[in-house]
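Checked the freezer inventory, then went back to the computational side. Two predictions to log before the end of the day. The first one is the construct we discussed on Monday; recording sequence and tokens without edits.
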Amino acid sequence: SENFHICKTVRHGFPYQPTCLAFDPVQKILAIGSRTGGIRILGRPGVDCYSQHESGAAVLQLQFLINEGALVTACADETLHLWNLRQRRPAILHSLKFNRERMTFCHLPFQSKWLYVGTERGNTHIVNIESFVLSGYVIMWNKAIELATKAHPGPIVHLSDSPKDEGKLLIGFESGTIVQWDLRAKKVDFRIYYDEAIHSVSWHHEGKQFMCSHSDGSLTMWNLRNTARPIQTTYPHGKILKDGRKESCKPILKVEYKTSRNSSEPYVIFSGGLSYDKAGGRRPTLTIMHGKATTVLEMDHPIVEFLVLCDTPYSNEVQDPYAVVVLLEKDFIMVDLTQSNFPIFENPYPMDIHESHVTCTAYFAECPPDIIPVLYSIGAKQKKTGYSHKEWPVSGGTWTIGSQTYPEVIVTGHADGTVKFWDASAITLQMLYKLKTSKVFEKPKAGEGRAGELAEEDPYAVQMVRWCPQSRLFCVVGISAHVILYRFSKHDADTQMVSLEVRLQFDSEDVIPLSETENNPCFSDPSSKSPKTPGSPGNGSQDSLPCLKVKNRPVRMPPGYQAELVVQLQWVDGEPPQQITSLDINSAYGLLAFGSCNGVAVVDYIQKTILMCVSTLDLYGAADPYQRLTRSPRKNRQSTSGLTELSNNQVSMDMERRKSPTSVSLQSIDLLSHSA
């Protein structure tokens, strides 16, 4: 500790369990809140900041003080926080705790010093944003609704000031009641009672009408001149059935109603609302209605929240929407509204690190200077097409490159067998290249092979990687007890992969009974096995076979890393092979070594030959740290105290039995013993 101080510098990847979203349209920065109390602030690529509430309470809502470098967070522990963003590390300036009521909705108008807070009881409190204390002005629910109405209107689900008059506050209650409150006169302008629950409200910029989304999948339009009934009611995804009934639809959870200078038709954008009967209704959707055109965008994950980005921060100006930010449970996308086919922007943040769960990581510093450009040029050819050609709209903040100038690469292995190379030289990660290790193997058919028994969900999951940036050799260990060696090539090729199978399992007569090994996970009960000699086939139908089947035909491989050699451990006695726990590669000698609980194998990857295969008992002998006792040694086999005590004859016989073209000296075996 006196020589090193470890501190977090940056957090990469998608925010875990996101809950809410906010955008500053002037500074062009974005904030994402999470269920664990985290806040992620994003700007232009490279601007990425993470802060955490000490309480760990979920962040329910975020509100930027637009163009002022501050952010309000409303948390599940009924506390409001004011964050100062005008410093390198954002910090909390003020906090305000609500003791008796639960917050349900917050609204902060542009350039206003009053923050409106709606509660579960239906009351609205007003907070002075400068002193961050309650003003004492409370709009009680029983004052907002008619005195003759005894039923409680439910929690507040919407608050907004009128675009025409900031002194008028529109309050939406969950039950379907909407009230416009005159803040100066402290009285109600009008009340609307609707028989469907309200989820959201959105104003037309002129302040003469607004739109509501409801729990039955409908949208209603209301005009302030006549609030007795809506001027329009639509079910965007609900059709009238033959018997005259309308289809039942899912709730429309949020609607945005935006006007545009370039078109007389407004944009109506909403989430949900699909028919329960449609097969497509099973997937989360975002619908964009513009004129007579209706576009439904299907999402891979549930929608947490979406925001429509507009050129102006003023609610009383024509909005001119140009993009929609959609926060999903496990993804973050942005849709370009300026093009008729609504393409998505290419996300510059490393949000897809956990596209498939990360199962291993490796960090490489001071790589050769040419390795990152080479990987990037190959990886660029893998990228999807069809993205928007416009610049990423979130362009706020500034950042400076760190003092280090050496290339850094992070490699991540994933549950689906993919490997990703990331440029970590700057603050932000940039994906360089993606490798799919599963393409080496045949797809297992139902009931075929043993991959399913060993790793039912992810038979290709990556457990370990070794990379030599200088020689560009790359090695991957998978959960199905396999090792794949890759070589880098700038050209595509038709390659026939070489497959080697290794038996690396204890014989039953070498293992002590279960009672003596019950604390050691590497050994299983040998009582059901019959003694065998090394290399003899097992009793099971799949014995002496590996978990996965390597493609035995020439495979067309694109430029980049191309598989050259696959080494797999075999099943023995109806038992799957132990997972590989260690791996090393030596490009100078052309050797690949790997080990498991049961032993070590060394492979000559140039001549594609197994050089040696040594059990753990032979490696350790009497110095075995697990104190594994031999039972009845086989005939013609000497008990050894260490690998270095083997005679020259034994080594030569062992090598001859494996038909290796490479001779191994005692010195190299001694080194193996020391490294083990």
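The second is the one RB wanted added to the comparison set:
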Amino acid sequence: RRAPAPEETDRLSAALGNVSRAPLVLALQVKNKAPAEVQITAEQLLREAKERELELLPPPPQQKITDVEELNDYKLRKRKTFEDNIRKNRTVISNWIKYAQWEESLKEIQRARSIYERALDVDYRNVTLWLKYAEMEMKNRQVNHARNIWDRAITTLPRVNQFWYKYTYMEEMLGNVAGSRQVFERWMEWQPEEQAWHSYINFELRYKEVCHSASAVSLTRAVLVLVHPDVKNWIKYARFEEKHSYFAHARKVYERAVEFFGEEHMDEHLYVAFAKFEENQKEFERVRVIYKYALDRIPKQDAQNLFKNYTIFEKKFGDRRGIEDIIVSKRRFQYEEEVKANPHNYDAWFDYLRLVESDTDAETVREVYERAIANVPPIQEKRHWKRYIYLWINYALYEELEAKASKRTRQVYQACLELLPHKKFTFAKMWLLYAQFEIRQKNLPLARRALGASIGKCPKNKLFKGYIELELQLREFDRCRKLYEKFLEFAPENCTSWIKFAELETILGDIDRARAIYELAISQPRLDMPEVLWKSYIDFEIEQEEYEKTRSLYRRLLQRTQHVKVWISLAQFELSAGQEERLLRCRQVYEEANKAMRSCEEKEERVMLLESWRSFEDEFGTDATKERIDKLMPEKIKKRRKLQAEDGSDAGWEEYYDYIFPEDTANQPNLKLLAMAKLWKKQQQDSEAAVMDPDKDIDESQT
């Protein structure tokens, strides 16, 4: 749709003057298919039409009734209209209510009652209909009729609380307290919701008949807590008794509440209220007992408010011990949450057990230990059991040292040893602790049996060592020999075992057995620390002053290794042998070592040998020997070598120190070349100095 242009309007006016040509002129002049500049939507058209319709709607005419006939005629028409509406749809209650209110406005109360009664016959469950009916009677001061309607309403629909509220309020406003109380009593027989009971209680409290109201309220509250057994209702009941100074009754209410809810449905709010009541009565010991009873039985996650109030109470009225108990309880709650979240968090169990051991009785500690050791690692790998095994160790030590229960300690050790998967791994410390415990109990056969079982099931170096040490302390040397034999059969490569076995025989004075043990040891194809074994054997022969055998051992060792420390040790042995030719022998060892080390690639070891030789010559040698050893000392030079990365690419250069020995004939040409290069470099420096300073003495320059 577009608005017509001005020229089109003029043409339209001219066309209207000539009616005969109007249709053709309009068709030719008004018809314009071009879009208008301002477009109008269909929504705007509809809204504009609706607005104009309201504007044009004429107001209804005012009718003035001047006589009775007109009034009766008006009433007849309106009643006919209402009746027609009702006849069309009887279930529309709003039509009945409008009809009754219209009759009420005309003061036709009897007709309005008739209409309401007819409407109730149609739908007696409509709450609004009863309310309008009763309100009409109350507005017109028809009290008995209103009572009759309320009685019928609460009898027909007893679960509609609004009827009861209106009925009791009406009676109270009329001053009929007894009637209102009677209505409340009838209402309470239906066991309504909590608010209804509170309304009844508040009604009784509004009147100052203390004896009657107090007893009635008390009875009402007693019934309330049975009909609606919530914690808040019990607390309100007890506070009511406390408010009216019935302290014994209030305490009984709290005790009944605790007994009513039992341990299955405990609530911290009840115990907090109970404790505060006792605190107001200055019964501090009862308060403490209530808090402890509740904390021991209520789940920790539901007792935050209880903890808080208990802490405040102890800070106000308790001593240091009481405050510490509160802190311990809080920490116990934290540890309980940690172990509940992750039962295999053994560090949390350790902290929890340490706390429990310091504060509670033995039964509680045992219970926590049993809970802790029940969390066996799910994987049979030793690394997962290393922390877990200490729970058993601490348990056994607690039973032995703190609880003084040796029988339970033995049971703990045995249970732990039965639990361990010995075919896969074991813990030697557990076997040894068990054996030591049995020894402390003077039960040696059981200790030996345990250690023997450990060696039979899962032999380990630590078990053999512990068993041997035990027999040594008992001076059972034959058993020690047998154990060493078993030990060396199990681990023949263990040099420490061979050495300890030989030392035992040495202490016992059996030198031949000790020497035979050493011979067996050095003949083993595999040894974990052969140098320690050879050194111990050599020291053994030196202690026995068997110098020839010692030299023979050194020669046998040098056949196996040409290590520089062996040569130096041999030289020092010859020096300390105490014989006349000791210096000569020592010098010969150094000479032989120097010849043997010429083919060694490790030049640092050869340098170490020469330095040891020079130290010897400085102390015991002559000038000739000192000069000779000085000539043998190498020259230390700095070199560069090329580095390569792991992928084969160049990684730059590095500097290192190398040693050039005068004795190496292969290195003599290199030494001569190096000396000539140094001489040439010096001559070049002198020539440059002469050019820079021409007045310098010629002889000095040439020099």
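For RB: Residues 1-9, 11-28, 694-703 have pLDDT under 50 and may be disordered. Residues 668-692 form the longest helix (25 residues). Let me know if you want it refolded.
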